[in-house]
Design brief:
about 325 residues; alpha/beta; Nitrilase/N-carbamoyl-D-aminoacid amidohydrolase; 2 domains; six-stranded mixed beta sheet; 9 helices; 14 strands; about 35% helix; globular
Length: about 325
């Protein structure tokens, strides 16, 4: 009996030991100068966000929050500016551009993307982040790739149901799976929107396949849909896991919480109280290098899982037959 359990017990102990020892290795190192960052939390009520008066109030509020104090990088939550990028109010666009140029602040804000046809129609709406860099008129753009079913697109085979119920729901266009980083003072920054940071493999792929791998991760989100629930703490834990997997700090700008900064070891450096208006101001150090997870993604986990399954199929049936045989002999 001891001989039969020795092999699986040894494998289990080896996996546990590897998990405990891997964090002790320094897979990433500090890279580029530290960045001063401001993460904004507007606490805009969800029921007001897409009403005309609420939209104007949200835009005015975030204009004031963005321009109140300079930093190397200023980040707003997802769709903090709830209008099409081509329809940004002139006072907001002018104030943000002027503030960026005069203070050297790079600004990343959430808005709705889209393409305008020659006829003036807007097509291919996207959930996007736009970046303003001081001293240049180039606009950075990130389009959300991993869309939410029924929230941002209609899954295949369900269009008939949406049409039947007369639900005014369209499809957002998807961004590419690997998009260029937003560069802030020579520090490449990889961004994602909402629950895209659930998918660690996709973030690892972005770092692995980018020509200029990001040294800082940013998540811009709006969890007001979930109210005052455990979802806020859960999403913060998810973000901490992404930092541990990639060896990179994660910055989170949220509408209602948890707005927080996490270092490359998964430690929370600071956070704002949920359902308050404010900014989290701190300094973050980017990193460079590859952790095992960035190098292989989920392949290592899948390989170990397949190995354990193969081990079970190879030795499990024999053990069952042996037990049945002994049971039969005893009954005879």
């Amino acid at each position: 009996r001891i001989a039969r359990i020795a092999a699986p017990a040894g494998i289990a102990l080896a996996l546990i030991a590897a998990g405990l020892l891997l964090p002790l290795a320094k897979w990433t190192v500090p890279a580029n100068a530290p960045l001063t960052v401001r993460l904004l939390q507007g606490d805009v009520k969800q029921e007001m966000k897409f009403e005309e008066a609420g939209m104007r109030a949200a835009i005015d509020q975030y204009q004031q929050m963005i321009t109140s104090k300079p930093a190397d990088l200023i980040v707003t939550p997802e769709t903090a500016i709830p209008v099409l990028a081509q329809q940004l109010p002139a006072p907001f666009a002018s104030a943000v551009r002027s503030f960026s140029d005069s203070t050297g602040s790079a600004i990343l804000f959430g808005a709705i993307g889209g393409s305008v046809t020659p006829e003036g129609r807007v097509v291919d709406y996207t959930n996007s982040l736009f970046g303003v860099t001081p001293g240049t008129r180039d606009i950075y753009r990130y389009d959300k790739h991993h869309l939410v079913p029924f929230g941002e697109f209609v899954p295949w085979g369900f269009r008939w149901f949406v049409n039947l119920m007369s639900i005014p729901l369209g499809d957002f266009a998807r961004g590419g799976p690997v998009q260029k980083p937003f560069v802030v003072h020579n520090q490449p920054v990889a961004v994602d929107i909402c629950y895209e940071d659930i998918f660690g493999e996709e973030i690892a792929r972005t770092i692995r396949e980018s020509d200029t791998p990001a040294g800082v991760l940013i998540n811009s989100t709006n969890l007001a849909w979930f109210g005052d629930t455990i979802a806020l703490d859960q999403h913060l834990q998810i973000a901490r896991m992404r930092s541990l997997e990639t060896g990179r700090p994660m910055l989170r700008a949220t509408n209602t919480g948890m707005t927080a900064a996490i270092d490359a070891n998964g430690k929370v450096l600071g956070r704002l109280t949920p359902y308050t208006i404010g900014s989290l101001d701190l300094t973050v150090q980017g990193t460079a290098g590859r952790t095992p997870y960035v190098t292989s993604g989920n392949n290592t986990v899948l390989a170990v899982s397949l190995l354990l399954l193969a081990f079970g199929f190879a030795f499990g049936p024999g053990r069952i037959r042996g037990r049945n045989g002994k049971s039969g002999n005893g009954e005879a």
